[in-house]
């Protein structure tokens, strides 16, 4: 009887040891605020600024690894809703319907604004007219032809730029004639650079921070100044005009964190909305949601370095 008791006790010990070991393994694989690895989905129109943020974040916190998947806005939202991924970056907040879906799953998404971006219109360098009225683009989206616009070129039918322009034009679908779509902003820029009369619709971040392979392409295009629906003046998607709220196609960028714990998503959101992250936004040509502070050293007396 004593023999069986020892065997039973040994079995219990092995079972508890295995459970503790598995728990320890799971805990070690779980990311924390500044440690571990996560995948995030990113609206392709704002990928350059996210690349910059991740490069500095990983350079600061060596135990953190963030991999990004650039996708259309619709795909980003779907991945979050279906919990295929827990952190995403978009150019819009979640709708009430989307928030209700998360609420039914007992998930409370943390939505953090971190930058003000803009949609830009671009044309071929051969086009001497660098001005465009927003009403002309809206009319074209509504199927009304404009002699100045040969065609509109978007990155993706499911992108944030298409959704934004459809909402402005109050149309459910884009016209089947005169509107072209590709997959990425880079493809739009290349197409416009090689085709006269086309107006490309891209995220301004791709123009303020072109990748090395796009530098020559950017030299072949004009960034157009835009007259808003209630304006008489034309404004460019410059940092200054965006800051002064003059450019009519500005939009906020958000990081949406659906992790149900204090993980790397929370750490990254805190980073990009904090002082260092906001300085990166400022340097990129976009507008930070809060201006980074500047520290001034005030001296009571002038020190003569020559003495």
Can you walk through the features of this model?
The chain has 307 residues and is of the alpha/beta class. The protein has 2 domains: 31-116 and 252-288, Periplasmic binding protein-like II (D-Maltodextrin-Binding Protein, domain 2, 3-Layer(aba) Sandwich), CATH 3.40.190; 117-251, Periplasmic binding protein-like II (D-Maltodextrin-Binding Protein, domain 2). 39% of the residues lie in helices and 22% in strands. The chain has helices spanning 2-29, 47-60, 73-81, 96-104, 134-141, 160-169, 185-194, 205-208, 215-218, 239-243, 264-273, 275-284; strands at 36-43, 64-71, 87-90, 110-124, 131-133, 151-154, 179-181, 198-203, 221-223, 225-227, 234-235, 250-257, 287-288. The longest helix has 28 residues, at 2-29. The radius of gyration is 25 Å and the shape is globular. The relative contact order is 0.18. The model is unreliable at 6-10 and 13-28 (pLDDT under 50).
Give the CA-based shape. Answer: globular
Number of domains: 2
Radius of gyration: 25 Å
CATH architecture of the largest domain: 3-Layer(aba) Sandwich
- Give the name of the CATH superfamily of the largest domain: Periplasmic binding protein-like II
Stretches with pLDDT under 50, minimum 5 residues: 6-10, 13-28
Portion of residues in beta strands equals: 15-25%
Instruction: State the end-to-end CA separation.
Output: 95 Å
Briefly note the CATH topology name of the largest domain.
D-Maltodextrin-Binding Protein, domain 2
Find the structural class using helix and strand composition: alpha/beta
Tally of individual helices: 12
Binned, the helix content reads 25-40%
Q: Quick one: CATH class of the largest domain?
A: Alpha Beta
The assembly state of the depicted protein chains is single chain
How many β-strand stretches?
A: 13
Protein name: Phosphate ABC transporter substrate-binding protein
Pfam families: PBP_like_2
InterPro entries: PBP_domain, Phosphate_ABC_transporter
Organism: Flavobacterium hydrocarbonoxydans
């Amino acid at each position: 009887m004593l023999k069986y008791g020892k065997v039973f006790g040994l079995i219990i010990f092995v079972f508890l040891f295995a459970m503790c070991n598995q728990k320890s393994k799971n805990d070690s694989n779980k990311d924390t605020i500044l440690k571990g690895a996560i995948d995030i989905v990113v609206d392709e129109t704002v990928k350059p600024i996210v690349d910059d943020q991740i490069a500095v974040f990983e350079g600061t916190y060596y135990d953190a690894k963030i991999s990004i998947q650039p996708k259309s806005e619709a795909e980003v939202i779907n991945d979050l809703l279906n919990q295929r991924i827990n952190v995403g970056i978009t150019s819009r907040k979640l709708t009430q319907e989307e928030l209700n879906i998360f609420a039914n799953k007992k998930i409370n998404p943390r939505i953090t604004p971190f930058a003000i971006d803009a949609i830009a219109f671009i044309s071929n360098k051969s086009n001497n007219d660098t001005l465009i009225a927003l009403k002309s683009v809206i009319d074209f989206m509504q199927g009304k032809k404009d002699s100045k616009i040969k065609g509109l070129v978007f990155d993706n039918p499911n992108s944030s730029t298409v959704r934004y322009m459809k909402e402005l034009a109050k149309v459910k679908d884009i016209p089947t004639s005169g509107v072209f779509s590709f997959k990425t902003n880079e493809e739009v820029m290349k197409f416009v650079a090689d085709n006269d009369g086309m107006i490309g619709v891209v995220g301004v971040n791709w123009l303020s921070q072109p990748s090395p392979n796009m530098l020559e392409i950017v030299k072949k295009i004009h960034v157009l100044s835009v007259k808003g629906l209630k304006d008489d003046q034309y404004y460019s998607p410059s940092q200054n005009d965006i800051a002064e709220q003059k450019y009519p196609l500005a939009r906020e960028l958000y990081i949406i964190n659906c992790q149900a714990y204090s993980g790397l998503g929370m750490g990254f959101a805190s980073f990009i909305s904090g002082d260092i992250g906001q300085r990166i936004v400022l340097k990129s040509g976009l507008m930070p949601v809060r201006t980074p502070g500047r520290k001034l050293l005030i001296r009571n007396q002038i020190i003569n370095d020559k003495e």
